[in-house]
Amino acid sequence: MNKGFKGIVITLALVLALTLAVGLSACNETEYYSVSTECNVDQSIAQITVSPSTNTQGYQKGETAYVTVAIAPGSKYAVESVSANGTALSCGQDGKYNFTVEGDTKISVQIIQTTDVALTVSADDEKGSFVVSPVGTV
Q1: CA-to-CA distance for 110 and 118, rounded, in angstroms?
Q2: What would the DSSP string read from start to end of 22-63?
Q3: Whole-angstrom Cα distance, residue 24 to residue 9?
Q4: How far is CA 28 from CA 24, 31, 60, 65, 71, in A?
Q5: Burial (CB count within 10 angstroms: exposed 0-12, middle 13-18, buried 19+), residue 29
Q6: What is the rounded CA–CA span in Å between residue 97 and residue 45?
Q7: pLDDT tens for residues 59-80?
């Protein structure tokens, strides 16, 4: 094999090895996604909070997150629905709407006006008193 041809073969082998190394390292990069919110009423009526991601760069695919919705006390509004990318979410007993991040996620919250105000009644047996207050967190 002559020296010129041997040099070309070695150069091509090095270029191929470098290309494979760069390609494989790119495959191992973690992708991060965002979660945004939208609501049909003003923030003075409903405040939407999304759980923080485990990484400052964003949410990773498969990461579990949640949303909470706080309604202004006595405002006569209630949560009608909460969805993530069009899929309805259910409210857990802890007041959280859990979802799994599969990519960039848009949380949509629909609020309706009600004619009734939800109340919380609590009793203090020691003092013999009752406290009645509007419910503000759904």
Answers
A1: 18
A2: HHHHHHTPPPEE-EEEEESS-TTTEEEEEPPPSBTTBEETT-
A3: 22
A4: 7, 9, 13, 23, 42
A5: exposed
A6: 19
A7: 999 999 999 999 988 888 999 9
**Close Cβ partners of 88 (under 8 Å, ≥ 6 residues apart):** 81, 82
Main-chain dihedrals φ then ψ at residue 117, nearest 5 degrees:
-110, 125
Please tell me the distance from the alpha carbon of residue 112 to that of residue 41, in angstroms, as a whole number.
9
- In 40-125, the DSSP E strands lie at 46-50, 59-60, 64-71, 77-84, 87-88, 97-100, 105-113, 119-124
Query: What gap in Å lies between CA 27 and CA 93, rounded to an integer?
Result: 40
Task: Enter the tokens of residue 85.
Answer: 């990318």
One-letter amino acid for residue 134 of the chain:
P
pLDDT digits (tens, 9 = 90+) for 81-117: 999 999 999 999 999 999 999 999 999 999 999 887 6
- In the DSSP assignment, the letter for residue 91 is B
Residue 83 tokens, joined: 């969805």
Q: Of 70, 68, 32, which is closest to residue 50 (Cα–Cα)?
A: 68
In one-letter notation, the amino acid at residue 55 is N
